[in-house]
Each structure stands twice: as structure tokens, then as C-alpha cells.
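New to this. Look over this protein:
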Amino acid sequence: MAHGIPSQGKVSISVDEYSSNPTQAFTHYNINQSRFQPPHVHMVDPIPYDTPKPAGHTRFVCISDTHSRTDGVQMPYGDILLHTGDFTELGLPSEVKKFNDWLGSKV
């Protein structure tokens, strides 16, 4: 993994040892990810979508892999929407526009 190492106000980024071999990287991290827990990551359990949001909190809504199938998707209220996967089937401009129009309707 790349690590930032501060040095006189600058950050050095080291190259991951597997960066030139994606197959080896996938195998290594896929096998080891269950044992790897970064110290700054805190696991949380999702709460039901209809739970009232406490004052001062931010509600994240996470979706992924909609693959141009956003018609009829019921989206819970949230402050921040994270779409973390494929939103088109083929990456066609018409699919991107359709997704953008759908996303714009969620405001």
C-alpha cells in the first residue's frame, strides 16, 4: 500500500509493490483483506432507512451497480449520495445523460 510520509512539509508517496502486476495485487489483497483493518477506519452498522436522523448528524446513502436501471429505484432521504459502482451498462453517452438526469431529479 502507498503511504504518505511527511518530510519537511512535503509528502513522499511510495509505490505499492504490486502496482506492476494487477493480478498478483488482486490475489494478495483479496486473500489478506479480511485480516487488514486500517487503524483509522471504524466499522459501523447500517441503520434502518426510516430511523429519524439526530440533529447535527449526516446521513449517507450508498448505492452501486445500477447499470442504467434507475427507473423505479426508491431512494431514502439522505444528505450525501455515494454511487460507488457502475452506473451504465456500456458507458454510452446516452446512458451517462440518463443517469445525470436521474441524479438531478433527486435534489
Notes: Residues 20-102 form one domain.
